[in-house]
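Recap quiz, item 2
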Amino acid sequence: MTPSAASLEVAGGGNAWKVNIVGDWSLAAIPALDAQLCALPAAASGTLECDWSRAGRTDLGAAWILLERLRVLQANGVTVRHVGTPPELLTLLGTLQDERSAEPPPVPDTRSKLQHLLVGVGRWSLDLGRNARGFLEFYGRIFAVLGAVLRRPKALRLSSVVRFVYETGITAIPIVALIAFLISVIVAYLGAQQLTKFGADIFVVDLVTVAVLRELGVLLTAIIVAGRSGSAFAAEIGVMQINEETDALRSMGMNPIELLTVPRILGLMIALPLLTVIADAMGLAGGGLLSLTQLNIPWVQFVSRMREAIAPTTFWAGIIKAPVFAFLIAMVGTYRGMQVRSSARELGRLTTMAVVQSIFLVILADALFAILFVNLDF
Amino acid sequence: MPVGAQPSPGADAAPIIRVRGLVNRFGKQIVHDGLDMEVRPQEIFGIVGGSGTGKSVLLRTILGLQQPASGSVELYGRDLHRMERPERVEIMKNYGVTFQHGALISSLTVAENIQLPLREYMKLTEPELDALVELNLRLVGLSVDAAGKFPAQLSGGMVKRAALARSLALEPKLLFLDEPTAGLDPISAAAFDTLLLYLQSQLHLTVVMITHDLDTLFRTCTRVGVIVDGHMISDSLDGLLKNDDPWIKEYFHGPRARAAEAHHDG
């Protein structure tokens, strides 16, 4: 049977309309019928007769759209009758329409725009408060576990800690080394452009060593690790939440904070300072290489100038920040992971949030350190 | 009194699905070893088998989601695995699938999930799309309130129904269900059986269903295929009850099966 084009033939006028349903009515044919459906006499009162005698195969969806249109006419006071062997699925669709009329009509939203705005602001503030409290509680739980470790060394999951040192530290070495090297080359190159104007080439060494050791090494490493491991923590724990694995741990009397969060925090707090040392070394190497090739400063001179440029504390001023950054990254990552509740959408949203917030917190902490170090003359 | 639903009117017609000599293996593990299966128009065909016998793999192969090692799968008389992609999509539009856990897209509301295939393949206006969402929700017995909700906000039974609504959106004549009643309480499961029988009779659907639920099996299925040792033994329920295979015997004459059977006989 070849499909014949569907159409709607409207005839009559005044109080008696006649509609011929012609051809195969399917969803694919509906766009072509749109205009004809809308041309049904909307304001007419009286009777409308649907003649199905020339109809072909009729699909459920297409028939439903026609019936819904006729429903509007009926609401206007038109009496609709079906004649000429209407398809049996009309009965089914009629039952569904009747079900709807049996239901109470939906309650219309009577709140004004201002009320909506106020409700939105209120919800947001409550969420903010709840979030802050949740974060504080989480922070407290971590220290409770750390306290418990003193009494019960088994609570320190040493094998997990080692695993996370490997996953967040060892496997990150190539990317951290590469980026530290490149950034320091860029800084040295741009610095050299400016400093040669004053004949102060040799100060490129000061620029690179101080910048890398105090700031760039640790900050870059922290940002890379936040993107790499912060997101991994949030996603791993988030999926465990969705699979009810954390509930399983809880039900066996184990503490997910002790098993999942603390090992990650400790692991990252060990890994990040070590990564920073590597980043520092690669940064200095990059600066040295650029000085050699662009400014003809030999390695020996670079190293001796470097010794003059830095104070004994410069290296430590950078490295001391690493565990703090590590703590922030791991805490935000695991906290957001723990917040995931049963949907893939949540997982994506909270993983993004973990990365964005941990990078923000790292930079904020770095600013506070800068002020502190200046005041301490460190 | 015969067990199960009445024989389908299309019992003698050409099969809609024909699987011949299907072989699936993963590494050294052979899942299907020359499996044959036929599904006739307008029957509800149940697939049963122990855990790990490859029920879901069979379903995935029939759907064209997995390439078999050898053998052929014909839907509507055409081999799905020897088809170019545009043709294959045409065939795929003619069947609906509900997966075991619903597989509703979690970032979309129920309404958007139902509209997803309609928007992809049909040119419809927004009011028409909304009307069709309502139609499909009502068909599966969900209230219109569910339309704006996200899958994570639905109960297990509602997820299964919403998934069914999505699979019905393109009005397929062939429906695949993977454990539709798993994880539902007996009342919801019974309601789902009723719904399935109702839709099948109203829309003249052909249904292929994987199920472990003996009540569902006895209540809805016209014929049942049992996967044993990589082959399929398919028969009516009456026939299978008399089968001598040890696994089938244990399956259909175990304490749970006897209870389900007695319930539907009585």
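The radius of gyration of chain A is 35 Å.
The interface with chain B takes residues 26-28, 30-31, 34, 59-61, 64-65, 68, 89, 92-93, 96, 99-100, 103, 106, 341-346 of chain A (CB under 8 Å).
End of item.
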